[in-house]
Amino acid sequence: MGKDGTELREFGMEQCVGEASVRFREPVEIMASASVVGTKEGQGPLGALFDKVGQDDYFGGKTWEEAESNLQKEALRMAFAKAELEPKDVRFLFAGDLLGQSIASSFGVSEFGIPHFGLYGACSTCGEALSLGAMMIAGGFAERIACVTSSHFATAEREFRFPLEYGNQRPLSASWTVTGSGAFLLRRAGLQEPGRARILGMTAGRIVDYGLKDSMNMGACMAPAAADTLVRHFKDWGRSPAYYDHVITGDLGSIGRTAFLDLLAMRGIDLAEKHLDCGMLIYDAERQDVHAGGSGCGCCAVTLSAWILKQLEEGFWKRVLFLPTGALLSKTSFNEGKTVPCICHALVLEGA
Fold this sequence. Notes:
Shape: globular
Oligomer: single chain
CATH architecture of the largest domain: 3-Layer(aba) Sandwich
Largest sheet: 12 strands, mixed
Distance between the termini: 40 Å
Mean pLDDT: 92
């Protein structure tokens, strides 16, 4: 009881389950989304499904960083147009990218004038944004939320590895940062006609560090975080792989997928037939020379918007577990010889 004799209510706590999960009383809908990608992505297996493929990877900018900001602007504009909404119709915006101080987002979304939360979860940022946005709606703090993330091959190389002018050699374990941006508009369920899909809940990831230091093998570094989140999700929700049509990771790539499946097998979980990975879906590994596959904030964001939601929308799948993964390193930590801590968030998505 409060000091004035009124009963205190633990608002929203009845939606919490297990150690780190939230199961929404009412699903949150993904009402609209948009995907904008670069030329290489447009030439891949999903090329015809993206909303826009750039004529070149500058997207009208003078620098690679300006190009990435323009990616976010265009994806968000297209999402608003699809939903027939204006920026003023959205309460909050969650945005993030891979660059220092998230400059792709800060320069990319400022013109929309939406109250803004800047996020950094490395390549898991799409999952982080959707999780926080959905929880804010489920908690009654907003009716509509916008989420946008991006990455760009050239900006990521300069931020984490070497500028393209160096022409450095890439090992076979390396992934190719996706040039792309995915934008999503969320709303309370029941406001209008069903959206593209529904978010039933989420499981927050925790930082997992197996002591690996190879920044050119992100898949192996992130696999333990993905396995950790998946195991805790099954425990929190009381689920098994049979509950989902597919479990879809963000950007483990071919090497990370092997490590992920091996780690799960050690826990008695066989996911080989259920698992898909956005980093392996977005490119044709044999034809496009991307080595281990795709990565970056834009990888799972554009794959979710263009392909995963389409499968749910059209009834090919009923329910999937979406597991964006991220490596939380920087060029400073790498140059100081630090390990690569990683994280993975899980979202339960269902056809509307």
